[in-house]
Specification:
13 strands, 8 helices
Length: 291
């Protein structure tokens, strides 16, 4: 009976936000595995006692990325970690978008402003500012061309905290076609979903946002599948890439562009796609068994 750890965050006294977690534990148990949801930062966990540790909902890691990457490296030495620590290190900082662009993958145009860089902002179109290390739209906001003062205050706050900022044009296609999330498991398409825009005009960067508004199942187009495939093929050091989510939006040319490639702790939306649970359980048991 393979022992599988599903790494998650500690919610404290708040309700847990991962709706997939109990479904996945049950599916693994029904399939013959011993599965447990484990807090990634629990110092009392012996990760070597598991055949596989799967990063699932470590959704507080972006506040302490260095600690999380160090944990991934230690855990990867103690047992098999999915996805591997090298992938975690690369994907936990959104400067990976530059690597994808350099490989010819169509991505949303992206500039980076590190602490000390001049705060040069667009003056002819809406734009988005967010940190290179973040999750759930944390410290993300959408601005009109005349809102430079507010955007500069956000940049100053982020830079005070040592964060590097991303500046991207606001992609208007998301208001029409939404953002599509293509999810892969074991190298194959698992399912896809679509959500509407997360960032509304006038919402403060430090306000709470709904991460996946109006989420619904989606059937990906051939063009979306092609772009997602190109993005995953450009990820370095991925012989053991078990799961992935590629988020796409339509650019000004009407074609899909990569918004993000999520390889660390993407929400799999299994609660929306229950038919995918057996596939995921089989793939995890196979990985735990070394198949």
């Amino acid at each position: 009976m393979p022992r599988i750890a599903l790494a998650t965050y500690d919610p404290g006294t708040e309700p847990h936000r991962d709706r997939d977690l109990p479904l996945l534990v049950r599916a693994l148990t029904d399939a013959g595995a011993e599965a447990a949801a484990v807090h990634w930062d629990d110092p009392g966990v012996d990760w070597s006692g598991f055949d596989l540790a799967v990063i699932r909902s470590t959704w507080d890691y972006s506040w302490r990325t260095a600690e999380f990457v160090a944990w991934a490296e230690r855990t990867g030495r103690a047992t098999r970690l999915a996805n591997p620590a090298a992938v975690v290190r690369w994907n936990s900082d959104k400067r990976y978008l530059g690597d994808l662009a350099a490989a010819g993958v169509p991505v949303v145009p992206t500039r980076y402003l590190a602490p000390g860089d001049p705060a040069v902002l667009p003056d002819d179109h809406e734009f988005v500012v967010k940190p290179t290390v973040g999750a759930g739209a944390r410290y993300a906001a959408r601005y009109a061309p005349g809102e430079h003062a507010a955007a500069q205050r956000q940049l100053a706050r982020m830079h005070e905290e040592g964060l590097t900022a991303i500046v991207q044009p606001y992609v208007r296609g998301i208001d029409v076609g939404g953002e599509r999330a293509l999810q892969f498991f074991g190298g194959r398409l698992l399912h896809a979903s679509r959500k509407r825009a997360v960032l509304s005009p006038g919402t403060a960067y430090d306000a709470q946002k709904v991460a996946h508004p109006d989420l619904a199942p989606w059937t990906p187009t051939p063009a979306e599948l092609a772009v997602a495939g190109r993005a995953l093929a450009a990820v370095p050091n991925t012989p053991e890439l078990l799961y992935a989510r590629v988020d796409l939006v339509d650019g000004d040319d009407g074609k899909p562009h990569v918004m993000e490639v999520e390889l660390v702790e993407p929400n799999l939306f299994l609660f929306l796609h229950p038919a995918s649970l057996p596939t995921v359980a089989r793939a995890l048991i196979a990985a735990a068994s070394g198949a």
